[in-house]
Design brief:
Blueprint: E1 5-10, E2 20-21, E3 24-25, H1 26-43, E4 47-50, H2 60-69, E5 74-81, E6 91-95, H3 100-117, E7 121-126, H4 131-134, E8 140-147, H5 151-157, H6 160-180
Parallel strand pairs: 1-4, 1-5, 5-8, 6-7
Antiparallel strand pairs: 2-3, 6-8
Length: 182
Amino acid sequence: MKNKIIVIDPGHGGRDPGATADGIYEKDLNLNITARLFILLKDLGFKVKMTRTDNRYLSLGDRVKIANDVNTDIFISIHCNAASSNKANGIETLYYPGSDKGKILAGVIQHSMIDKLNITDRGFKARPDLFVLKYTSMPAVLVECGFITNLEESELLITDKYRNDIAAAISDGVGEYYKKIK
């Protein structure tokens, strides 16, 4: 793990709040979860870089450039979901179609989160239309950590314990990924 570089990306930021519901901003949840994940991955011996460490705006191109410029081994973008229906719930992990290692990474992260979080499994899915997955040159995933528009999930997402659990599940998934691809 020593020489493995992981870039983690808290989605949105600055003038782009992402999804919002009841005074909760996705950009803030993403940054908080990513900061927790940063510590856990460093503790496992990875070299870790965050695309942003504060409430600043970065374009999608900036995020991709950061990942591509440091010879990154894997890229993880952290998000929270939203829907017009407050009944939509669960977590999902997205990867770029045709990326075999991206699919493996998405699968192990998704399974780890489902095992640890006791939340609806929306699966891991190929998504050809997501810029940060399409243009990064390494295995990349986008993790949707729950719906802020679902009352039960938003109540979980605002707790330190649940955000710690999300970060731990993703970190465990990363460890599992490196066992699988050996």
